[in-house]
From TrEMBL:
Gene3D superfamilies: Ribonuclease H-like superfamily/Ribonuclease H. One of its GO terms (biological process) is DNA recombination. It catalyses: Endonucleolytic cleavage at a junction such as a reciprocal single-stranded crossover between two homologous DNA duplexes (Holliday junction). Mg(2+) 1 binds at D30, D162. HAMAP family: RuvC. One of its GO terms (molecular function) is magnesium ion binding. The gene is ruvC. Homodimer which binds Holliday junction (HJ) DNA. The HJ becomes 2-fold symmetrical on binding to RuvC with unstacked arms; it has a different conformation from HJ DNA in complex with RuvA. In the full resolvosome a probable DNA-RuvA(4)-RuvB(12)-RuvC(2) complex forms which resolves the HJ. This is Crossover junction endodeoxyribonuclease RuvC. The lineage of its organism: Bacteria, Pseudomonadati, Verrucomicrobiota, Methylacidimicrobium. The keyword Metal-binding applies. The active site is at D30, E90, D162. It is an enzyme of class 3 (hydrolase).
Amino acid sequence: MRAGTPPKDSLTLRRGSLSIGGHVRIMGVDPSLRRTGYGVLELLPGSERLLDCGVIAVGPKKSELDCLREIYRGISQVLVEQKAEEIAIESVIYVQNHRTAIQLGAARGVTLLAAGNVDIPVFEYPPRRAKTAATGSGSSRKAQVAFMVRSLLGLRENLPFDAADAVAVALAHAAARRRSLALRRSS
C-alpha cells in the first residue's frame, strides 16, 4: 500500500483519494481475534445510513489460524455484498499483554489483506477518535458508544458492542471525509 500524508488530527491515510459528491459506502472494522465487529454506512449528503453491521464471532475452541480464516472470509464477503468503497479500521492500540497485541495485529492484517485483494482504500483511526465521533468523548465506555450510534443513526435495535464500535470507526471516517471535502471546496 502507498502511504499518504497524515492530517494533523492523526488520521492515517493508507491509500486512495476522496471523491467529491455522490454516495460512498464505508465499512468500519473493529478487529479482534474472537469478535471482529463490522458496520457498513452509506454516506449521503448531510447524513449517514447504516446498511449492515454485525460481529464475526469465532468459537473459543477454534485455533488462531481458523479464527483468522473466518475473519478474512467474513470481511471479504461483506465487502463484496455491500459494495464497500472504503474501509475505516481502528489503529493499533497499546496493550500490556504481548500475546493480545500479536493476535490483534493478525486480525488487523487479514482485514487489510481482504481490502487489498479488492483494491479498497484503508483509513486508520485511533479508538479514542472513533469514540469521539460517536459520543463526543474519547473516553466513552462501550455501552455509551452503542447507545449513541443507535441514536445518531435512528436505529430501533441495540447493536452488539463490537458492531457499534465498528460503526463508530466508520462515523469517524465519514466526519473526516466531510471535513476534507469541505476544505477542498473552499480552496
